[in-house]
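Recap quiz, item 2
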Amino acid sequence: MAEAVEQKEYWRWPETIWVDESKNWHDAEVISCGIDLGSVSTQTVIMTDGELYAYSNLRTGSSSLDSTERALNAVLEKIGDMKREDIHYIVGTGYGRVSIPFANKTITEIACHGRGAVYIYGNTVRTILDMGGQDLKAIKVDSRGKVVNFLMNDKCAAGTGRGIEVMADLLSIPITEVGPLSLKVDEDPEPVSTTCVVFAKSEVLGLMRKGWPKEKILAAFFRAMASRVVELLERVGVEPDFAITGGISKNVGMVKRIEKMLGVKALEPKIDPQTAGAIGAALFGRALYIKSQKK
Amino acid sequence: MAKEFKIEPLKVWDDFKKYREKYYRDYLEAKDNGGIRWAGSAWAFDAVPAGLGEDVYPLTGEPYGATVAFFKDFSLQALEAAERKGVARDLCGYLRNYWGSIILDKYVLADGTIVEGFPKPDFNYTIHICCTHAKWYHRAGELEGGIPTYAVDISVGPGYLLDDKKIDYVVRQLNDSIEWMEKVTGREYDDELLIKAVYAEADSMTTWAKICKLNQNVPAPLEEKSMFTLYALLVLHRADPRVAELYHKLYEETQDRVKRGIGAISNEQFRFLTDNPPPWAFLNIYRYMEREYGAVSLGSIYTFGLEGAWLGMDEKGERWIWEPAPTPEEAGVEITNREEALRWTAEYNLRYRPGWQHPYSHKIRKLETLQMIRDWKADALIMHINRGCELWALSELEVRDYLVKHGIPVATYESNMADPRDFDEARTWNVIDSFMESLGRKKLSKQ
């Protein structure tokens, strides 16, 4: 009987859990939680009196309920002595937000990303690009992070995390390395001609057969993806300051190309920008809890 | 506290439903009594085949394709049957449902009953304006074993640039098509029936425009989901005097609703327009908007303009006028013979059908849409990026950007009018909820 050959999963990105050890959550008056259940990743953020205290950033599994339980339990476990009952208010967001049974309220991820981006980047941010696992959003916000306009990509994985995962696997390069590697070219080659991930994959296979080095292939791929993202941004109109949230904001190959095409530099994040949606949700949670106490 | 409006069911509702049910059955059973069947676009010159007799039954392809789309299970069978025959998935969704029905040799009635044996027409009679219409029936005729097909080319430009030469071009084809119909059916053509049908056609189309205009009132007396049922008779058989009569009844009832302040929904708080044929299998979008946001869809350039007759662009091509076009009686025109009848129907359709204006220029569609938003006092537009119709998808995004520049909030969602596989429910709700949130609208169920 043939044995299965073990295969490395290059697409897997590292999961993270973080707690601010300098703070004591017992001192907080309001503990709020935001859970961003996305198609690829799930973030849970705990805020104490509106300040970031802890978060987890884990992969979304096949069960939405299990993924949210896992993400929340992971962060509570890391904190140690906090129990779910200690949280005053939980807001669910993201593609799977309706599948978070213990959330006090659900809010769309566009609103949460707007609010979260202002927390991360400051209130000068006006245009946000959220590059997620399966969709892209160009969001315009006011100084409070309130969404004033937005556009989503059409149903296509181009320019999204899932598309990059496919390419990392195809080229056998860990996903955290594809971005930096794509910049190791003197000049970007012509972009791959198609933006559909499935067809781009066959096009890349052709380039591999032609003997193109991996960094050149990645440069061609990211140039095409960045171009698609910029089209979306230009339709909503880019007004500075400009910031990027979502998992792909960590991909320097995409970010640099988007900046170059737009002629605008994105703000540097002080906090993991993949948590923006969950941070926004937790901030909404705090406000909603305070409002409920006044009634 | 939001104002509550009185609501009432429409008295004419059942009459419209019954007509549609009877229409599909009449076509099926036409041969039992020696009648004639013809099939073609809902944009075909419906009045012209009427001259063949009073037992002539049409089947219009677009509404048939939409009916199939509404019954998702059958639609899937039809779409896959067409694809197995090599039909590309990005062709018109209605066309694929229609061809799929022929290939499966099954016919759907309005209530979803599936009948074995797709009823073949005696001839196909259509128009040609986009890349699909003529080829649709040409190929359908082949699939049906060689049904003769006639397509009238109407691509002469927008109504405000119409001249005698262009009208003559269409009238010549209509005259020729009558001779052709006589040949393929063996029947003698009756000009009196043609004249009667031409009057009825204009009556139906202008009355529909008058009904749509009443939705400018607050509260809106009608909402678009119901209007899809009400406008359907225009796309089925507007040249039938019984259809014109039903629109008169509806017009009277709608005027009465306005007079008494009867709304389409009790909690109207937000008024929006749409833009394209909807995804027919997912009309619950409209009920969701009503229930969750007190949002009423007032109509669209599609619902109002596909078969309604409107003045349209002014003579200079600078302004769109949403006023009902005149019927022959209102224009002081008496139609006494075939030539006059054909000339009237050609000019009336070419000049006053919005659906035959905006495909020529995104400028027309921009002006048309913006004027509609203003005239109907709409708060926003929710645009269906329709992957099922190239003609209706034309200029969509240019219009979106133009409206946004004019301060009109616009949301877009992607789907397909007639292919349920292209609809992503969770994503669509997400767009709608995010859009309403961005406008400061809270869900009524959460308040």
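DSSP finds 17 helices and 14 strands in chain B.
Chain B has a mean pLDDT of 95.
End of item.
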